[in-house]
Amino acid sequence: MNEAAERRLLDPEAHILIVEDDGEMRSLVARLLREASFRVSTARDGREMWEILESPAGYPDLILLDVMLPGASGLDLLRRLREGSRVPVLMLTARGEEMDRVLGLELGADDYVAKPFAPRELIARVRALLRRATPAEALPDPRSRRLGFAGWVLDTARRELNSPDGVAVDLSGAEYDLLLAFLEHPQRVLSREQLLEVAKRRVGSDPFDRTVDVQVSRLRRKIEPDEDSPSLIKTVRGAGYVLVADVTRA
Amino acid sequence: MRALWPSSLAGRITLLLLGGLMLLHIGSMWVHERSLRGSEQGARLERMADQLAAARAAVAPLPEAARDAAAHAISRPGLEIHWDRSAPMPAAEPPAGLTDVAARLGPEARIGWDPKAEPGHRVIGALPAEGGGWIVFSAQWLISGGEPLDHGAIASMVAMALGIALVSSLVVRWITGPLRRLASAADHIGRDLSPQPVPLEGPDEVRHAAVAFNAMQERIARLLEDRTEALAAMSHDLRTPLSRLQLRVGFLPEGEDRTRLEADIAEMEAMVSRTLDYIREGRDAEPVRPADVAAILQTLASDAADQGHDVAYEGPTRAVLPLRRHAAKRALSNLVENALRHGWPPVRLRIHEDDKIIAIEVADAGDGIGEADRARALTPFVQLDPARGGSGVGLGLTIAQRFAQASNGSLELGEALEGGLLVRLVLPRQTG
Predict the structure, then answer these.
(1) d(CA A119, nearest CA chain B) in Å
(2) Interface predicted TM-score (ipTM) of this complex, two decimals
(3) Own/partner long-range contacts of B403-408 (Cβ < 8 Å, ≥24 apart)
């Protein structure tokens, strides 16, 4: 998908609210997003955020929320926000602060980017979230954070995959995104192109470097570790891949 | 001598008690024996004087021919008495003890000593008989000496020694117990950062040592805490300017300068995150739960391979053990980064397991680390090859080692089949 098509997809230009206390950081992120042709509002803290949310400027399509804010912390704001709104929230956390991340995702944030981040990565995550937030693809229940399939459980708040016998199985970022895509579309054949779109959400590595097939085979090795493990992801000749298990939400 | 002197305090105290009490025992036995023999000897001398007086009285009224027989009749075991016309001269000067005997028998008595005579007759003497001639006698050596101790005494001494050894070793173990606990607590310092207070028990001296020791632990913990806080604060604070820098660089036109700037920023970011990893290890309250360490290694290998590095995992598809998952991933990812940064590809990740442990190996094909430098390589903030660009802060191996120790495991450095460094992280299958 080229840049022009991307813009059409997000037309009219998406409105993004940045909540960040560091002035320079705020203006740099705003500039970055504007150059990527988003409409941007900025808020220094919670008070300004509420003002903008109630102003005629319009409700944002996505909120970029810094966790470390003076006064009410980003997590407090998130909790209050989630009491009445499903607006997608992308958290900015400090790298390595796993508690912030987990708490944020549990409180209803949709994704996070750790500071310091690569500009390309931020843009990719914002676009991925906006795409997912279209009504057809939104999760039916915003609180359903645990996806079960064939005894396995993917906890999307903790980004943790647990095997049927309760063992935590580590996933790479790309594997997680792929698995999530399969779980959101169980028993539907996903084409390589669709899966490549998913892989684009991660810009830590070049998604074109490794084919989708390699990523899928890595994911398979983890959820079908033994020869006699049941086959959960099947290859559909010439079409793509399909998750054959039922998915439950809890 | 050195071999006989025990090295432990308990051993020394036991030996001292044993030696002292044995000495006391032998001394008192000797004194007892002596006084017993002294009084016995007095009684014997008394009896001997009585018998000699009786012999004098018995021979007085008799004719000379009957005198010897009469005197001999009064003999008894240990004292042989005869009558003779003349007195024999003692063959040798009597030993000092004998003069007492002579004084007791009267001023005219002669007494002597014949070392060559039979054992029962070594003391010889004479005293003038009434009516002429001499009462001649030979007796046992009166003052005992050099007689061997009897079996009973030896047995009692051995029994006593064993008893003392047993009781004193028990008592001494009880006394030195608090000291041993103090030592083992001291051994734990620095292995984990949380101070482990020593219980205040045992004798006053040990109690004082424990109080001082706890205070010292407290101070060291605070010192470490302060230093770590400062380092953490600096690393935290660096992330904001780094974020700004990274964003700003994104607005620069594409080109070599921008590429280099981005590489520099990535390197600084890696240094900051490694420092934070180091600080976090051992401080996080991450719960231990079953996790698949093979999956972690596969992820690390895939991620590195996607970045274009020759890193691969060769091992079982599954290896489950109780683990702090995030800490383990941090530690292992630091090992992989370390291998890529300081070693040379190919980098291979392996797992060897048995029923007690799981050994995770990270091997590279670089120059490795010589045996002499291995201990230093594990020291925080030490880099062995500053000449090679000096990238990093020298924490990669340290983070992994701290993780290993906190998980009751170990970290060893060796030589890889590939020729470079082999880092072997051994983790127990059972925690605790």
Answers:
(1) 6
(2) 0.76
(3) B403/B281, B403/B324, B403/B327, B403/B328, B403/B330, B403/B331, B404/B331, B405/B191, B405/B192, B406/B192, B406/B281, B406/B282, B406/B327, B407/B323, B407/B324, B407/B327, B407/B328, B407/B431, B408/B432
Distances (CA, A) of B355 to A17, B269, B325, B428: 55, 40, 20, 9
| A101 vs B contacts (CB less than 8 Å) | none
Task: Considering the domain delimited by A3-132, tell me its CATH architecture.
Answer: 3-Layer(aba) Sandwich (3.40)
d(CA A35, CA A39): 10
pLDDT in tens, B262-278: 888 888 888 888 888 88
Judged by CB atoms closer than 8 Å, whether chains meet at A222 and B298 is answered as yes
Task: Give the mutation candidate from A167, A213, A227 for the B interface (greatest B CB count, under 10 A).
Answer: A167
* pLDDT at residue A204, as a whole number: 47
| Nearest chain A CA: its distance from B202 CA (Å) | 44
- pLDDT value of position A19: 94
Three-state DSSP class for A231? coil
Considering only the C-alpha atoms of chain A, give the largest distance between any 2 of them, rounded to a whole number of Å: 60
Using alpha carbons only, give the angle B422, B424, B429 rounded to the nearest 5 degrees: 160
Which DSSP category does B189 fall into? Answer: B
**Taking CB atoms and an 8 Å limit, are B290 and A221 in contact across chains?**
no
From the candidate CATH numbers 2.60.40.1090, 3.30.2130.10, 1.10.287.130, 3.30.565.10, the one assigned to the domain spanning B189-280: 1.10.287.130
Three-class DSSP category at A237:
coil
Whole-number pLDDT of residue A70: 75
Q: Decide: B1 and B143 in contact? Cβ < 8 Å.
A: no
> What does the pLDDT look like over A137-156, one tens digit per residue?
444 444 557 889 999 999 88
Encode B81-132 in three state secondary structure: EEEECCCCCCCECCCHHHHHHHHHHCCCCEEEECCCCCHHHCEEEEEECCCC
Edge-to-edge, what's the strand order for the sheet holding A111-115?
A39-43, A15-19, A62-66, A89-94, A111-115
Please tell me if residue A242 touches chain B, with a CB cutoff of 8 Å: no
Going by C-alpha positions, the residue among B414, B379, B412 that lies closest to residue B395 is B379
Complete edge-to-edge strand list for the sheet that includes strand A168-169:
A247-249, A146-149, A152-155, A160-162, A168-169, B289-292, B320-323
Out of A24, A170, A204, the one facing B292 most closely (by C-beta) is A170
Backbone angles phi, psi at B126, to 5 degrees: -150, 150
CB A240 within 8 Å of CB A189: yes
Structure tokens at A113: 């980017």
A34 phi and psi angles, rounded to 5 deg: -65, -40
Within an 8 Å CB–CB cutoff, is residue A168 touching chain B?
A: yes
Longest alpha-carbon distance in chain B:
155
Collect all residues with Cβ–Cβ distance below 8 Å to A224 and sequence separation of at least 6. Answer: A230, A231, A232, A233
Out of 2.60.120.260, 1.10.10.10, 1.10.150.20, 2.50.20.10, the CATH code matching A146-249 is 1.10.10.10
Contact of A242 with A234, CB cutoff 8 Å: yes
